[in-house]
Amino acid sequence: xxxxxxxxxxxxxxxxxxxxxxxxxxxxxxxxxxxxxxxxxxxxxxxxxxxxxxxxxxxxxxxxxxxxxxxxxxxxxxxxxxxxxxxxxxxxxxxxxxxxxxxxxxxxxxxxxxxxxxxxxxxxxxxxxxxxxxxxxxxx
Length: 140
Fold this sequence. Notes:
This protein is of the alpha+beta class and 140 residues long. The chain is built from 3 helices and 8 strands, in the order E-E-H-H-E-E-E-E-H-E-E. It has helices at 21-24, 27-38, 98-111, and strands at residues 2-4, 7-14, 46-52, 58-66, 77-81, 84-89, 122-126, 132-137. A hairpin with a 5-residue loop joins strand 7 (122-126) and strand 8 (132-137). The longest helix has 14 residues, at 98-111. The model has no long low-confidence stretch (mean pLDDT 94).
């Protein structure tokens, strides 16, 4: 469990997405990550922020952090994620694909009653070195 400070992300949106490995490993998300990488001069961490709406659906913003909305490139969207408490998942090697690995851990922990999700913003990070971290908003 960890606390995260409020953070602003800017990038490209994929509407009405179900958070999980299927979406995150899709060709669409690979394409969006590459477009975000192309906007930067060097390697960057790419975050996918899953944002719930009032109807209970999620929109995904494939993005990088920014200090201010005025710093977000024209044409991109931005989302402000409030501070919160998150369960952190990193690959444990059970599944070869690191993204599938972390999402499988979330499914198992939820099914076993070990994880009480808040169903707020969840953040998946693929670091510039290819490591994966998944932050799931939780109820404490």
